[in-house]
Design goal:
Elements lengths: L2 H23 L4 H20 L20 H6 L11 H17 L10 H8 L14 H13 L9
Helix pairs in contact: 1-2, 4-6
Length: about 160
């Protein structure tokens, strides 16, 4: 405890004793005056602690932000005026393509596998993701190529 707190407690106790003694001289029983003083001190401490806050209970329900579907969020990534696709949808389509090629044992970035990837997807589809601007038509071409990919034969299923 700091010296300031100790001094404040001593002054508070001395003031409380002084009030009880003054009330005793005025004819109020000591026990009654001490009980009221303790009650006033307790209410003061509770109000200082912030426990007497009527607005805090029950707590307010957290506000839920409405979430659109995944398709709706991705559709906003295509500029309807220019037809340019945004970064999010391009990366999402690229991830799907990489996943589907990996299931077939192919890597989109491996130069040794580039002819095999081009044979499966078609000419120019692999280069879509290296361009700075990707259009909606480019993405449609990639998704059509993904749909044409053969299903891998999986012995575990």
């Amino acid at each position: 405890m700091t010296l300031k707190r100790i001094l404040l407690m001593v002054v508070g106790i001395a003031a409380g004793v002084g009030i009880v003694l003054v009330l005793d001289r005025l004819g109020v029983p000591v026990e009654f005056a001490a009980a009221w003083l303790l009650l006033i001190v307790a209410v003061g401490l509770l109000s200082r602690a912030g426990l007497v806050d009527d607005a805090s209970w029950p707590p307010a329900r957290p506000e839920r932000r409405p979430r659109g579907s995944e398709v709706a969020r991705l559709s906003w990534n295509i500029n309807s005026r220019t037809g340019e696709a945004g970064f999010l949808i391009v990366r999402r389509v690229e991830r799907v393509l990489r996943h589907r090629l990996a299931r077939l044992g192919l890597d989109l970035d491996d130069p040794a596998q580039a002819p095999a990837v081009d044979e499966l997807l078609g000419a120019g589809v692999r280069d879509t993701f290296t361009r700075a601007e990707v259009t909606r038509a480019d993405l449609e071409r990639v998704m059509t190529a993904i749909d044409r990919l053969p299903s891998p034969t999986n012995q575990e299923r």
